[in-house]
Amino acid sequence: MSGTEVAAGTETVDFGGLQISFDARVLRPRDWTTAQSWWAAALLRDLPAGDVLELCSGAGQIGLLAVADSARRLVCVDVSPVAASYTLHNAEAAGCIDRVSIRTGLISEVLPRGEQFPLIIADPPWVRRSETVRFPEDPLLAIDGGDGGMDVVHECLRAISGHLAPGGVALLQLGTQEQAEAVAALLGGSGLVAGELREYGDRGVLLRIDHA
Ligand SMILES: C[S@@+](CC[C@H](N)C(=O)[O-])C[C@H]1O[C@@H](n2cnc3c(N)ncnc32)[C@H](O)[C@@H]1O
User: Fold this and answer.
1) The pTM is what?
2) pLDDT tens string 83-114
3) Residues having CB within 6 Å of any atom of ligand 1
4) Tag placement on the chain: N or C end, fewer CB within 10 Å?
């Protein structure tokens, strides 16, 4: 699928005013996650110059909404080529295709050493592999966080550690407060520190991460 073509089975939903297309091979946009975009957009007003990095971008809606009212460029990373195609399509629909680049591959493979971003948004899979059966409508790749649920979270933390610019902020989406506490404990001594936690009932949490 190119940026302008639409695959059979495509649906389009409103996401904070953006028209976002996707199909069953990609996670359905969740309305509450506009909170991650709005938080990011507010932070962007005061962060140093530079591009926004979105890890585990899916159809791209969280990052696209975050940069919509700024002139920032957005770099989306997702291992799924289908997700990448929809990000392209959605960036075109949002009128900001010239500010969006997409890297299709594993987080660990597509970020050159030394590349830095003042804002990193991350939305990794966080469901324990044994519990993914509870979400039959969701693509496995989008929700399977490995045996403990934290495999891709760890990959995101490594990327944040290696690519967050001085004075920058990362916003990490997780499933539960317990996972956020586990991340905060992991960061001890890493040069990064967990900050404000915003909770959205049983839908998920957002954790701010700064340089220590
Ligand atoms: C929870 S979904 C989030 C998608 C999107 N942000 C959303 O809200 O709909 C996680 C995404 O991470 C991608 N993914 C899983 N493992 C990955 C990895 N190791 N590197 C890059 N992307 C990965 C999946 O393809 C999926 O699109």
Assistant:
1) 0.97
2) 999 999 999 999 999 999 999 999 999 999 99
3) 27, 29, 33, 56-59, 62, 77-80, 83, 106-107, 123-125, 141-142, 152, 155
4) C
